[in-house]
Each structure stands twice: as C-alpha cells, then as structure tokens.
Amino acid sequence: MRKRYFFIPLISIIVISGVLIWACKHPFGEGLTIINIGKKVDYSIEEGGPGYKGEIGKDVTNKIIKPDKVQVFPMRDGNNYYRIPTLIQLTNGDLLAFADKRIGSIGDVPKSPIETVYKKSTNNGKTWSEEKRISPPSTSKSLSYGDGAYCVDRKTGNIICLVVGDEGFLSSKPDKPIKTRLIIGRNNGATWDAPIDITDKIYGANCKDPDRKNWNGAFVTSGNGVQLRNGRIMFVLNVRKSDKVSPLYNHVLYTDDGGATWNVSKGAPGISKNQSRGGSEAKIVELNDGTLLMAIRPEGIFQRFLAKSTDNGETWGEMEPRSELPSSSSNGDIIYYTSTLNGFDKNRIITMFDSRPWKVGGGSPPGDPVLYWS
C-alpha cells in the first residue's frame, strides 16, 4: 500500500512535534472562518495529522512519522555554516536535502564563499549519505553559489537547480548584477552539469528585453520551485526595478523545456496594498482549476500576502494581506498536499512559516513556526 510521509525542512530537517497548528478554511479556498484547534498540538500521530480522515485515497493512507529528530546538516561545523535547507523527492522516491555551505561566515551573498551541497536518503529520511557538492569549489566571496532553488522535472527526472552569487542583491546594478546560474542534476543526482550563467536571460545590461535590462537586481526565491500540470517549471523572482532598496516585485521565472530556455512573466502581483515595500520571497501552488496561488513573504506588514494568476503565471492580480496569516518577514513554504485529481478524497494545501517577527531595535529572531492547512 502506497503511503505518504510529510517532512518539514528546517536547519536540521526534522518532523516537528509540538508546533502550533491552526486550521483555516479560507486562505486557499472559500469562506473566512478560522478554527484554532489548540496550542502545542502533537500531530506526530496519524489522528493529529493535517486533514487526516483515515483512508484518504483508494490506495493511500496518510501517515505522519513519529517525532524522531534526524539531523541532516548542523548549523555550524568548524568554520562552515549551513543555511537555506531544501528537501525534494526524486522520481524514484529518493530524497535529496540541499543546503548552502557558507565558508567562514553565516552571511548572505557576497559576505562569504558559498557552495551548494546535498545529502541523499533512500529510506524516507531515516539515514543520510555523506555530504556532496554540486557546485564548483568556492574560494572567493566574489564567486559563490548560494540561496539554491530546486525543482524535479517529472517528465525527465532531472533536477533543476538555480543558485545566485557574486554580487549582493541590494548592491546589484544592471552593469554589475547579482548572477543566477543553472545547475542540472541527472541520473537521480548521480551526475551534475557544470553551472550555466542565465543572468542575461532574466535581466541586466546584456538582457535583450528593453524593460528588464534596466532592472537593478533579481534573485530567485530559495527553496522549492513548482512544476505545473502542463510541464512548465517556475520559480518566483524578487526584483529591484530601481536603485532603491524597495519596493520589490515578484515576477515569475519559468521554463517550458526543462531548462533549455528561460522566460520572465510580463506581470507581477500588484502592490497597491503595500506600495512602499512591495513583495518579497514567494512560493506558488497550482489549484485544481489551473489557477496559480502565490504566497508571499511580508515586508513592513506582518501578514502573509496572497495573489492569483489565471494565465499560467504571465499576469497576476493584486497581492492581498491576510490577517488570519500573521507572519514574520521570513521565507516560508506551501505545498499542494492532496488533490482530487490524483485520486484523493479532498483537496488539501499546507503552508508553514515563522509567526514571530523580528523585534524592533533588536531582540529575538523570527520563530514559532506555524502550520496552516486548507
């Protein structure tokens, strides 16, 4: 009998017990009712799982593994720091866990040399292989491979990986841009192509698009990308269109041929509800009717933003702040957990992000991860 296992990637990729759990009827569907089912709910057993209804598909049971902690990457190992973890499942069922290996400093590009590394599990995350590197070795802050974004091409089994480096996002300029490089993994991660610089396809002085050639900076949201049912693979860009720090815009970077060619969406979610700051890091899921839902990290307003597209990501409606989704200004994730199109009894979307924002004037960092489902 085929089973589903639910993993949550954090610095140590673990299944968390004792997280705050809320059930929301609205964020990704109809209605506006919020149901607080209690604090510190243990969902490590089947009965406490999000959307658990016993048998949820013809040949599928929903099982959430017990709360055993399995450290995949340490926060720090000697002079190396590990950040930006991401978990993907290959077409053969194996799991790959990726992370930035930041050498000598925990800071973002370009504060340290950064390499992209991964480990593999062939037993649903119980044990992991030794660390391997998919990027060239980085010995200089001016040539790095960090903030990885990943998506498995279900047509070919290839792993599409996008990494950024060289310049900082806020110091990037059209003639000296933060670089985006493509690395493709093949043979279930056994082999990796050499990095290809695709920055000019996105923006910068050498970009052929008359508008995008004037953008000051753009980088791909780290974490998981998404493949639509039509095969299109897409990631969300964070764009600085001027020399100002903000506002930011969320255009979409996509490929229809497995990474051979790349395009950028004509539009981005409107920022009328947050004009001074705009959007930030964001993720996308495809709903059953083909509508795309973008969940956006907030800046300035500590509520998650949502936006929709009905034309495969080319144009977007206004991004709307959601008061029922209080959030820190940090990256999050969203997945389509079960769909009636795949034989399940119900459509279920899960999103998770830190609920506690940075304190003004210093203090504790973002924290208190909260799981929402619809």
TrEMBL record:
<dbReference type="GO" id="GO:0009313">
    <property type="term" value="P:oligosaccharide catabolic process"/>
</dbReference>
<dbReference type="GO" id="GO:0005737">
    <property type="term" value="C:cytoplasm"/>
</dbReference>
<dbReference type="GO" id="GO:0016020">
    <property type="term" value="C:membrane"/>
</dbReference>
<feature type="transmembrane region" description="Helical">
    <location>
        <begin position="5"/>
        <end position="23"/>
    </location>
</feature>
<dbReference type="InterPro" id="IPR011040">
    <property type="entry name" value="Sialidase"/>
</dbReference>
<dbReference type="InterPro" id="IPR036278">
    <property type="entry name" value="Sialidase_sf"/>
</dbReference>
<keyword id="KW-0812">Transmembrane</keyword>
<keyword id="KW-1133">Transmembrane helix</keyword>
<keyword id="KW-0472">Membrane</keyword>
<dbReference type="GO" id="GO:0006689">
    <property type="term" value="P:ganglioside catabolic process"/>
</dbReference>
<comment type="similarity">
    <text>Belongs to the glycosyl hydrolase 33 family.</text>
</comment>
<feature type="domain" description="Sialidase">
    <location>
        <begin position="84"/>
        <end position="329"/>
    </location>
</feature>
<dbReference type="Pfam" id="PF13859">
    <property type="entry name" value="BNR_3"/>
</dbReference>
<dbReference type="GO" id="GO:0004308">
    <property type="term" value="F:exo-alpha-sialidase activity"/>
</dbReference>
<protein>
    <recommendedName>
        <fullName>exo-alpha-sialidase</fullName>
        <ecNumber>3.2.1.18</ecNumber>
    </recommendedName>
</protein>
<dbReference type="InterPro" id="IPR026856">
    <property type="entry name" value="Sialidase_fam"/>
</dbReference>
